[in-house]
TrEMBL record:
<keyword id="KW-1133">Transmembrane helix</keyword>
<keyword id="KW-0472">Membrane</keyword>
<feature type="transmembrane region" description="Helical">
    <location>
        <begin position="62"/>
        <end position="86"/>
    </location>
</feature>
<keyword id="KW-0812">Transmembrane</keyword>
<dbReference type="GO" id="GO:0005886">
    <property type="term" value="C:plasma membrane"/>
</dbReference>
<feature type="transmembrane region" description="Helical">
    <location>
        <begin position="7"/>
        <end position="26"/>
    </location>
</feature>
<feature type="transmembrane region" description="Helical">
    <location>
        <begin position="124"/>
        <end position="139"/>
    </location>
</feature>
<feature type="transmembrane region" description="Helical">
    <location>
        <begin position="32"/>
        <end position="50"/>
    </location>
</feature>
<protein>
    <submittedName>
        <fullName>Membrane protein</fullName>
    </submittedName>
</protein>
<feature type="transmembrane region" description="Helical">
    <location>
        <begin position="92"/>
        <end position="112"/>
    </location>
</feature>
<dbReference type="Pfam" id="PF04657">
    <property type="entry name" value="DMT_YdcZ"/>
</dbReference>
<dbReference type="InterPro" id="IPR006750">
    <property type="entry name" value="YdcZ"/>
</dbReference>
């Protein structure tokens, strides 16, 4: 189930990046980011209202965890910027490669209090295959 959900995430991200990039062409980068996040906020508010849930935050949440929204603004900005110069496929492919590299680093060292999953040297083969595909996409 989770693997199917992960594939769905990839599909939704591809659609989101495309829509966001096109929206930025109609407005500009900053207005597009504002619209995107306002629409997201409205969607979450509607979901919370439909589920009849209150916004209860636990105490002692590390402050840095609230930076996800700020990081999200930069992600949308950079996706929009790259989308208009590189297209959807190369923007998403390079972004996924960046996620993969950092995720392996986070897993290896157990950063942010996560479980440690040591880097297996056999993964280098996968990285090289992905990197060769990316280089091919960049060149052609």
């Amino acid at each position: 189930m989770y693997k199917v959900s992960a594939v769905l995430i990839g599909i939704l991200i591809a659609i989101m990046v495309t829509f966001n990039g096109v929206l930025a062409n109609y407005t500009d980068q900053y207005r597009a980011i504002l619209i995107i996040h306002i629409v997201g906020l409205i969607a979450v508010i509607i979901i919370l209202l439909l589920k009849k849930e209150k916004l209860n935050l636990k105490k002692n949440i590390p402050f840095y965890l609230f930076s996800g929204g700020l990081i999200g603004v930069f992600v949308v900005f950079l996706n929009n910027l790259c989308f208009n110069s590189l297209g959807a496929s190369l923007t998403l492919s390079l972004g996924i490669f960046g996620q993969l590299v950092l995720a392996c680093f986070i897993d290896h060292y157990g950063l942010f209090g996560l479980n440690i999953y040591k880097f297996n040297k056999k993964k280098i083969i996968g990285f090289l295959i992905i990197l060769s595909g990316l280089l091919t996409m960049i060149k052609y």
